[in-house]
Design a protein that fits this description.
Structural class: alpha/beta
Strand order of the largest sheet: 3-2-1-4-5-6-9
Order of helices and strands: EHEHEHEHEHEHEEHEEHEHHHH
Shape: globular
Helix content: 40-55%
């Protein structure tokens, strides 16, 4: 059986949906059991999962042979330390394959996921690494009101990002989980079909929504002060500031064909996404 961690989140939830569509058995795990029940009902096996409770890991992993490992939404560079007891429990309970979500450029020593990938590769368990880019659905969450107000404020300067639909990531992940053996030891970059600046995305919003949307790129310090004024927690605005500064450095502009190689489909475009969610 497959264990899907983070099953109420973006990557875990999207992947679980595709597994359901394929009638593939899986155990959905998340910190919020009520959210799991609401999302999956009684037809799916559910489990409460909390990274801060390693004493529960062995029980959650009983009967599991494949793990879809999704780090928490706000991850730090020491996540591999938190994840180590989970990997040790997975070895103890007989897990044969781990499919882990990281991010583009996670082989870079400066990446917050560098330690996580090293942990998985050195675990002695078969593995596949999925590295998605930023996802379109951010514009339905953290940027939604900004788009409605006509301003996308992100300290990304003129850096390009190969935003991808989270459903594309979920579909690619589900294909690997269904039959992981051919994908052992492989790394897949799941990106959109194009790399765009936030200014170019603002132009697409303007065209499709028939209203002006612009991108402004504040300095990192201005950005943090603005988030602080909105009562965003310190750790979160520091995380976001670092994340968006990497866009300015050109670290998210890779456009990969891996989604097409796995699915025989073309990745969704940003214009497609905006039209769908007008």
């Amino acid at each position: 059986m497959i264990l899907v961690t983070g099953a109420t989140g973006s990557f875990g939830g999207s992947t679980a949906l595709y597994l359901q569509q394929k009638s593939i058995l899986f155990r959905a795990a998340s910190r919020n059991l009520e959210a799991l029940k609401k999302r999956f009902g009684s037809d799916t096996e559910l489990a409460t999962f909390d990274w801060d409770k390693p004493e529960t890991f062995v029980n959650i992993l009983k009967g599991i042979t494949i793990v879809y490992l999704v780090p928490p939404p706000v991850v730090t560079s020491d996540f591999h330390i938190i994840a180590k007891p989970f990997i040790e429990a997975a070895k103890k309970t007989g897990v044969r394959h781990i499919v882990v979500i990281t991010a583009l450029y996670s082989d870079n020593p400066d990446s917050i996921f560098c330690g996580t990938e090293a942990l998985i590769k050195g675990s002695g368990i078969n593995f596949t690494i999925i590295r998605p880019s930023f996802v379109f659905q951010n514009f339905l969450k953290q940027f939604l009101q900004s788009v409605r107000d006509g301003v996308i404020a992100a300290p990304s300067e003129k850096g390009k990002t190969s935003y991808v639909d989270v459903r594309n990531v979920g579909e690619a992940s589900a294909i690997v989980l269904e039959n992981p053996t051919p994908h052992n030891g492989k790394t897949y970059a799941i990106t959109g079909s194009e790399a765009l600046t936030h200014s170019q995305m603002a132009d697409i919003f303007s065209q499709q929504l028939s209203k002006q949307v612009v991108h402004i790129s504040p300095s990192i310090e201005e950005y943090k002060k603005k988030l602080a004024s909105l009562n965003v927690p310190d750790f979160l605005y520091e995380f976001l500031a670092v994340l968006y500064s990497t866009i300015a450095k050109g670290q998210w502009e890779e456009v990969s064909n891996d989604y097409t190689l796995l699915t025989d489909k073309n990745a969704a475009t940003f214009t497609d996404f905006v039209k769908e969610n007008q």
